[in-house]
Amino acid sequence: MQEQAINSLINQLKQKKEELVNQIEKLEDNGLRSSILNTTGELSSYDNHPADLASETFERAKDLGLKDNERVLLDGVNRALDKVENGTYGKCDKCGIEIGFERLEALPWATECINCSRLLEKEETTSRPLEEATLEPLFSHSFQHNKTDLRKFEEEDALDLATQHGSSDTPQDMPGTGDYKNLIP
Q1: Which carries the bigger pLDDT value, residue 153 or residue 158?
Q2: pLDDT, mean over the chain
Q3: Which of 41, 43, 133, 154 has the highest CB neighbour number within 10 Å of its CB?
């Protein structure tokens, strides 16, 4: 790669690092450093309406997620800057070949070539738990109405079974019933 192109990428890395550090500080300054009670302005966490505290908790969780994402990016940028100091910037960590300039231009903190990156992505995909291969669904669709065999138990039968023990229906909800005694089958 040309020296001028590498210097441009190094400048992009330094700018990105500064941007990420500033973004993390802003997230911390805008509420992550203070208690949730201070950000809501309430005297206790038992608010008049539960949605008020839920909204604040959601926003806090979102900010924490954003901060974690920024830290992951910052770690990548710092690794790339370390590679610049070591003289290994632009070389793949896995296979040692030179990373394509187009890839570095798009992602200056890339530490793997595109081929190794694709292989790594395939390895990182989590497979489903082994237990799922042996488990069967509790409610399978069948047209047999045998309520003693749970494998042949339909979802629609669940409501019938549950309402045998009572429901919140009132006589006005059920046509043709005049009192509560007629609601129980």
Answers
A1: 158
A2: 77
A3: 154
| Alpha-carbon distances, residue 113 vs 8, 152, 165 (angstroms) | 19, 52, 64
- Phi, psi dihedrals of residue 94, rounded to the nearest 5°: -85, -55
- Domain 3-125 sits in CATH at 1.20.120.910
Q: Does the pLDDT value for residue 168 go beyond 80?
A: no
Measured distance CA(172)–CA(135) in Å, rounded: 43
Q: Report the candidate in 13, 185, 172, 171 with the shortest Cα–Cα distance to residue 89.
A: 13
What number of CA atoms fall less than 13 Å from residue 72's CA on the CB side? Answer: 6
Per-position b or e across 11-22, b if 16+ CB within 10 A of its CB: ebbeebbeebee
pLDDT of residue 13: 92
Q: Is the pLDDT of residue 122 over 60?
A: yes
Closest to 112 in 3D by CA, of 133, 124, 95, 129 = 95
List beta partners, residue 91: 98
Which of 4-8, 52-56, 136-140, 146-150 shows the lowest mean pLDDT across its residues?
146-150
